[in-house]
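Incident log, structure service

09:12 report received: a user says their structure output differs between two submissions of the same chain.
09:20 pulled the input from the user's history:
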Amino acid sequence: MKFGLFSHVPWPEDVAPSQVVDNITEEFLVGEELGFDSGWLAEHHFSRYGLGSASLMLLANIAARTKKLRLGTAVIIPPLHHPVRLAEDTATLDLLSAGRLDAGFGRGQGGYEYAGYSVNHDESQLRFQESIQIIEGLWTTRNFSYEGKHFQVKDANLVPPPVQQPHPPMYIAATRTRETQDFAAASGHSGIIGVVLDTTDGLDLCYQLVEGAREAGKPMDIGGIPFFRYFYVGETEEQARRDSEAALNWTMDVNQWRRTYQRGSEVYDSLDDFLRTRTELPPSFDYLFEHRAFIGNPEQIVAKIRALQDSGIGYFGCNFSFGGMPQDKVLKSMELFAREVMPEFA
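09:34 re-ran on a clean worker, output below:
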């Protein structure tokens, strides 16, 4: 079993952006020391839900301070970038990290993010697919050309080329849209499962991707699909629940709130005002505890991960730092995990 770290890089109202960056950097540095295989950051824009609008820059900073930790994007949103520049930036990060980039791509979710970039969300599927083809082509092909509806490339040579050959590992996120699932399955690359799905739904999606890849003649190893969960381990279940409830509720509240915006965003508005006026509730902490988050004592966590392993999952990602979880609790939970859980899967 491989273990990774993951974060949306949340930015709670009472925390300075510099502190958020310092905290996630410390988490990844400590993670390398504790034996985690990788650290992954999400790209989000215009929202406190995630401060990783320039996730490749954050990962470049971490690359300069680590030696072994693989650096993942979960995910980059290609329709919000020009694919040639994205190919250059990712190849440069692969160079700076001496070949440690794991490149995850997805279409994203927030309509306001597309609006902020003046990109028509209705075009996102084709822009996404064209971008993936261009990035992979530039990574691997001299004098690369491409003629698409949204992007054209003429005899381009990528400088610098990526260190990893033929290219960095690619992961394609597909959550609910069948067209994206079919594209991911036929891409020849691994899927990736985010924290937003219930665990059973995430497993079902893994099986669908593996079967779709088999039918497309592009076998996908379920054991290589990163499977991320909101995560917290404490000495007791009671402590783990107590420590994580407020942070997980904040995550659900802000995620629900940001989706109400088609333009602009919630970042300078009042969460309390939204909570007083909303007409429906997001998933409760108790629901998430049972169906989506891995929260509990070491024995409970071992059992949950073992059940995933028995279902074929071989790459588990821990989202320790969600919702403004205090840094001392994040680090203590990581250390407990490394001491009492990881050895069970050695």
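09:41 both user submissions now match this output. Likely a transient worker issue. Closing.
09:42 reviewer note: The chain has one domain: 2-345. Residues 2-345 form a domain with the TIM Barrel fold (CATH 3.20.20.30).
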